[in-house]
Amino acid sequence: MQNTNRPQTNNDKVLVVGGGLGGIRTALDLAEAEKNVVLVDNDYTIGGLMTQLDRTFPTNNCDLCTLAPHLSESGRQEYIELMSMTSVRSITGEKGNFTVSVRTEPRYINEDKCTACGACHEQFPECVRFTPGLDHRAPTCMRYPQAIPQAYSIDLDKCEDIEALVNCCPAGAINPDDMAINREIKCVSVVLSPGADLFDPSKLDYLGYSTLPDVVTSLEYERILSASGPTNGKLLRPSNGTQPKKVAWIQCIGSRGIQKGAGSYCSNACCMFALKEAIVTKERFQEDIETTIFYMDMRTFGKDYELYLERAKDDYGVRFLRSRPHSILQQLGSDALTITYTKDDSTEQHIEDFDMIVLSTGFKTSEQSRQLALNAGIELNDSHFPVTDGFNPVATTKPGIYVAGTFESPKDIPDTMVQASAAACMAGSDLPAGKKTARKENNITTERDVSGEELKVGVFICDCGDNIGGVIDVDTLAKRIQDLDNVAIAISEGHGCSRVSMEHIRKTIEEENLNRVVIGACSPRTHLSKFQELIRKAGLNKYLVEIANIRDQATWVHSNQPENATSKAYDLIKMAIASVTKAQPLVDQSLPINKNILVVGGGISGMTSALRLADQGFQVYLAEKSDTLGGVAKNIFKTLEGDNVQTFIADLTNKVENHEYIQVITRAIIVDHSGMPGMFKTGMQVGPQMFYRQIEHGVTVLATGAIPNPTKEYALESCNAVMTQLETQKVVNQTPDIVKKWDNVVMIQCVGSRIPDNPNCSRICCQTAIKNSLAILEINPDARIFVLYRDMRTYGFQEEYYQKAREKGVIFVRYSKDSPPSVNPAGNQVEVTFTDVILGQKVTVTADNLCLSTGLVADNDSSEELAMIFKLPRTADGYFLEDHVKLRPVDMPVPGFFVAGTAHSPKLIKESISQANAVAARAQTMLARDSINLGAAAARVDSKLCASCLICVRACPFDVPFINADGYSEIDPAKCHGCGMCVSECPAKAIQLMQFEDDKILAQLEEIFDKVNA
Amino acid sequence: MKKFEPVIVAFCCHYCAYTAADMAGSQRLPYPANVKIIRVPCSGKVDALHIIKAFENGADGVYVAGCLEGDCHFKNGNEKAARRIDYVKKYLEEIGIESERLTMVTMSAGMGYRFAQTATEITEKIRKLGPSPIKTAITQ
Amino acid sequence: MITAERKPLEELIDYVKPFKRILLLGCNECVTVCAAGGRKEVGLLASGLQMALLKSGSNIEIKQHTLERQCDPEYVEELVPMIDGSEAILSMACGCGVQQLATRFKDKPVFPALNTQFMGASERQGVWAERCQGCGDCVLGITGGICPIARCAKQLMNGPCGGSTGGKCEVSEDVDCVWQLIWDRLKSLGQEDRYVDIMPAKDWRSGGGSGPRKIIREDLAE
Amino acid sequence: MKTESKLEKILAAGHLAVTSECGPPRGALPDQVREKAAYLKGVVDAINVTDNQTAMVRMSSLAASTIIKQEGLNPVLQVVSRDRNRLAIQADIIGAYALGIDTMLCLSGDHTKFGDHPMAMNVHDIDSMQMIQMVRDMRDKEIFQGGAKLKGAPKMFIGAAANPFADPFELRVLRLEKKINAGVDFIQTQCIFNVEKFERWMEGVRARGLHKKCYILAGVTPCKSLGAARYMSNRVPGMDVPKDIIERMSSVPKEKQADEGVDICIETIKRLKKVEGVAGFHIMAIEWEEKVEEICERAGLLPRPQI
Asked: Could you give the domains of chain C?
């Protein structure tokens, strides 16, 4: 399959510009697929905007825990060259052979030497770029200690005594002679993901942003709410430090062409952003605070977002006012902010006071990124966002240059993640076919068998500069430790994680024939894997090391009481020794991978994923339950932008059917499934005779689609004049003569969506209505078109088409959920009666065509069955549920499964294609490896002790344990997540969690109380 | 008589509380040295037996620190832990140990401040309660 | 399965106080499954007892062991080599196990650590409910597979009393009215006619009414 | 005529029968029984004597019934299956009949949980249905429940209770039918406040012709106060006191509530008189026996027919 023997050229890299969430994802996907990446970012650490968010919707989880692993993952990747403080100056050449000129600003710190001890920042805070408290959570929690690169940066301009600054660094890492470096990078393809700026409202006097301190942007509000923000998470008014009682959000600031300088597009993410902030505010202060959102349309069109909106209304009591306030004022002598507004159903002016007002500012391309686009030679649209392919939004006008994230168009995190992976897929496929960078050979020595050896623990204690050594006397501590049982050697080790010390520790292990190792140092969270690798190099099983966290848990937090810090450090090391003496060598679980792929579903998404993966040389089985490929999109003729869908599908189908690595299996019904990630077996009944056939594969892609909502509302079945948008589209495209006879057309939005039975928004229907309206007017300019809507959700650039439709005379009339339009068939016509909110009276239109926007629903018939067979979770409304709704939108919770297209949630064709491409990238990260390492922290059952009581079976959050044919509980280590819940609930004490065995925990406990009992 | 210094064991889940402890460290937020952390993958892994053993060994206080409600990395380990703590508290009362000596707390990974504050509050609470009756009995 | 719950610590302390060395014995069968007397509970009780005794100034050596089943003599025989080290046995088995021990070790005091409760089924994790009273003459065939003897507070065999409200028993809102359950099930099975016949007064001899019961399988019994 | 019971005679003659009830004292106070009986003399046809009512220990219903009999009234001996096994019950029945008691009511009894001996065993060797069957066989087949022949069969007029308000509602008619098949002669219902629901039940009863197979005495109770109404509504299992009754009681001042309760009771009787199949009334004036006369008077149930 993959030919690794091809001659290597110098040019085997992808350049990724931008180290935000999207850039990281792109770089990781490529690196995990064993492709070389250069990641360039102009900030001094990576993370982008995401690091400034407190909590993200819809689960209101803290981002930190989920983002952190990405960053350290990124830092560990051997395929990623990270260039921080670096900007792109020009890109020349063609796809396959670009030359990128970059400039790296001086950091004045040698990253190799810097241990991020913080000494420079303590002594010269003014000239060190490390700003805890200002950009909330980010610096304190993220940029340090998990920051990548793990180093500070110096602002030399602000330094008055350079020599003193240089001398303050215990690691000698500060280099005042550091200079900017210009460099040329050769690469095959480029992904631009520099993000976007937020709209600056300070020029809009009437909003008072620049004069009234209590008017803040949504990002600023986020920072005020944040636990590690400037107010320590207290919600305080910037003006007077009191807690606000009334907070309002004003939507669409800088979007939808509303203000001067605003983009003509919808910024996509702000509605959810405001909702989240309002909910978090209500969660924290409940009855003590009132929250109001001023909006035009609530655009909660994403997966399950509508439910979030309902929660905000019903559960949290957030108040929603459909209104566009025209000004924010403050009366002299008052500290209240006064908003004057009119409601959409009257002209009456309302005046209301608030304590704080949050401006939901939209996205805007930055000057820098426009320059970047110019340098890269890609075309931009009127709003300065890149012009992209109608069926592939990550492809720019220049082959080989791809875009992702908010640089491409305004979007939220999940869409960014999808595009980032899609861009990785596209950029990766530009690498010479079959090129795979050979993994660096690690000359790993064989593992020593330590069983039967007398315990010989080696203890290495870091001073970590002054971090540890400045508080306690490490040498004396080492001497005391030396006297403990089982300790062969205990020494102080300077900066244990420095290259020199690591080498010294390795040698000592070998020379002293140590069989257990304790490092007295910092957090195992950040450093355990490093030391595990080290002792493995020294010939020991990697699970024979423990870290005693004497820095974070002793010297850093008890620095004012060195005596206590010392005795605690002593205790912590003793605990680690006790624990490591009970440690047994463990083997990481790993599985060989079958590199074939099963794609279920032969619509656009499934075909796209199949094609991308097959192009990379993987064998793909494409199973489709009907007898032809193409799916629901076969009924769609053109996109909103005017691209021809039919030609696209025909071309795609042709490529798929004729691909040497794709086997199309039509009329395939999946009937069984077994195995584990990397080695699945799926059985299906195939063809008219329903022959049984079994496919072996390593990865499964679900692209089973959704179906048009089979609603029967509004006389859809009984009256010829009533049809769906899909049907209307067909008429418009195939029999335009009929359209010419239409005098009145009424469209009703949200038919069968946003109702109790199907609470979510179908996402696609607003733009479909606009598309069909424009197409009808094209054929019949005299037609009167009424669109009856609840919220127009024309997000992103769709907004421009919405405005165009308005300009062309399409009449948009809002109706509320409680008073839907009524329909009365009248021969070949249909009478539609609705309430005109502005006129405040009922209007009846006799329509020649009543066009229902019925949207999509999950294909429950097949997805319920598939979910059962594959053991995959679904949402309440039947769509497949991804692993993490923000950060892993295409990965399913079961490893080895990916989801693309409308099987995930309703979406547009181009969005489905992005997701399909993303799936291809994510799948390649798995398929690049020959085996999967699953770690060793799995629960293990001792069948001799097991009472088969089922308590573990019921306790497991992931349904892993089962009672096997021998009648005992069995836990598949490859499926075990390692939480240990079964262990703590087992009444027979028959289960142990490897790495966290009971005897290790009990041994630590005994050490703590050694003194008590003595 | 020597001043009473409580010995407190904190079982901290790897993903949130243990990370919060690291945060407290990197933010240099001081808290009493009485708290000794044992790292576990999830608060739901903390065994009732280990809590009881801690007291048997002479702990003056024990607390289990997990993720915020809804944030458990293993779905619901923190809820299971909270129920277990309630159960063990009753057992402690039966044994004759004040149940206030055992507490469940939750925090997110970013809450270094909360970690330090919790450690301080619990240490003070236990200090007020005085030595555990078991410790007293052992040392007599 | 037989269900049980641990006795209050206070009662157990009274039992073991006179001794210096005791064996705390778990059972890996029913009482493990209902989380009352398995290895885990043995550990918890040993620690708890030890602490409670320490507080009152006494110190007892508690040896912990768990048998596969205390109600079978062969498993009990396992204890022979270790039993001399202990002056008394505190059994965490059901009453059957306790008595099996007392039969085997005539000179050792044996104490129950559990209150044996009932024959039950597990409803879900951590919840066990009474389902059978061992009446020796099963009526489930008539009552839609739901037992009025074990599950009606008044053992009514001919329908619900006047206290059945909203499907709940008058004794407690947490208890289902078993006759409501029976009726619902008979209806769903289309067997309403099963209710019509009067179930005659029960012969309690099979239910222990005439003394301890015994089963002898002639082909197996030696 | 199956028995010598006065109640049976009155019912058989087609009169609307009236019974009331008397809770025996919690102590050896025979005069208290006589005092209560005195209120009811000439007012009702028979007096139920409760058997450890609400699972509280009281003078045995057999003893109290005997006293009432001595006073020249007709007791209805209540027997619950909760406290005695079949030997004791049969012994009491023979004994009662020997003392001239010819009418009885078979019940399962309130659970001990509600009484003053919650720790006591609930016997329930037989249930109320089986008790009916047992008494019928003693009377008609002249055998004990165990099968042995008995001499001097107790000719008991057999009653039982029915609660039209308990769940499952649809089983309530079937259960009555089952009691009839077991051998019951008359039924006293639970206190009726929700007349509509009672009427629905009676519809079911009539549909199966059950009102022709046994006599149905509708149970009524005067509420002494709003508190009593609320207590019955919330705390007494199987009792259905509709909201409008509570509202009506609460709409009058406290001192008038007793009168209001009596009014409601009388109105209920008047309404029930029109229901086909109602053969009489069972007036349960708990610890308020002195009011029964007024109720009967105003409801048009006096004077009682002489048989």
From this structure: 2-117 (3.40.50.2300), 135-202 (no CATH)
Beta carbons of C38 and A987 less than 8 Å apart: yes
Give CA–CA dist D176/D194, Å, rounded. Answer: 19
* Fold category of A12-105+180-196+365-441 in CATH: FAD/NAD(P)-binding domain (3.50.50)
Q: Which residue of B has its CA nearest to C44?
A: B49
Q: Cα–Cα distances in Å, from D201 out to C170, D132, D271?
A: 21, 22, 15
What amino acid is encoded at A273 in this protein? F
Q: What is the maximum alpha-carbon separation in chain C? A: 67
Task: Report CA torsion sign: A137, A143, A145, A146.
Answer: positive
Phi, psi at A73, each rounded to 5°: -55, -50
pTM of structure: 0.67
Reported as type and span, the H/E element at residue A845 is strand A841-847
Distance, CA of A137 to CA of A147 (rounded, Å): 12
- Mutating which of C50, C55, C64 best tests the B interface, going by the most B Cβ atoms within 10 A? C55
3-state secondary structure string across chain C? CEEEEECCHHHHHHHHCCCCEEEEEEECCHHHHCCCCCHHHHHHHHHHHHHHHHHCCCCCEEEEEEECCCCCHHHHHCCHHHHCCCCEEEECCCHHHHHHHHHHCCCCCEEECEEEEEEEEEEECCEEEEEECCCCCCCCCCCCCCCHHHHCCCCCCCCCCCCCECCECCCCCCCECHHHHHHHHHHHHCCHHHHCCCCCCCCHHHHCCCCCCCCCCCCCCC
The conformation of residue B106, written as its DSSP 8-state character, comes to E
Contact C201/D161, CB-based, under 8 Å? no
Q: What are the residue ranges in chain A where pLDDT is below 70?
A: 1-10, 44-77, 112, 115-118, 129-152, 226-230, 232-233, 433-444, 1010-1014
Contacts of B55 in chain C (CB under 8 A): 47, 51
Subunits with at least 3 CB pairs below 8 A relative to chain C?
A: A, B, D
* Top-tier CATH class for D6-298: alpha beta
Peptide bond into A194 cis (omega under 30): no
Phi, psi of D78 (to 5 degrees): -90, 135
Pick the CATH number of A708-857 from 1.10.10.60, 3.40.50.80, 3.50.50.60, 3.40.190.10: 3.50.50.60
Q: What ipTM describes this predicted complex? A: 0.90
CATH second-level architecture of B8-139?
3-Layer(aba) Sandwich (3.40)
Q: Which of B56, B92, B95, B139 is the best mutation test for C, with the most CBs of C within 10 A?
A: B95
Question: Which region holds residue A745: left if phi is over 0, alpha if psi is between -120 and 50, else beta?
Answer: beta
Residue C204 in contact with partner chain D when CB distance is under 8 A:
yes
Beta strands at C88-91 and C21-27: parallel, antiparallel or unpaired: parallel
Tell me whether chains C and B touch (3+ CB pairs under 8 A).
yes
| Spatial separation of the C-alpha atoms in residues A645 and D227, rounded to whole Å | 76
Identify the pLDDT of residue A860.
86
Alpha-carbon distance B36 to nearest alpha carbon in chain A (angstroms): 7
A221: tokens are 């509000």
pLDDT in tens, C93-135: 999 999 999 999 999 999 999 999 999 999 999 999 999 999 9
Within this chain, domains A708-857 and A939-993 share the same CATH topology: no
For residue A81, the surrounding DSSP H or E stretch is strand A80-83
Nearest CB to A989 within list C33, C39, C125: C39
Alpha-carbon distances of A111 from A166, A178, A688, C123, C222, rounded to whole Å:
14, 12, 65, 59, 83
Beta-carbon separation of C40 and B49 below 8 A: yes
Rounded distance between C-alpha atoms, residue A629 and residue A749, angstroms: 29
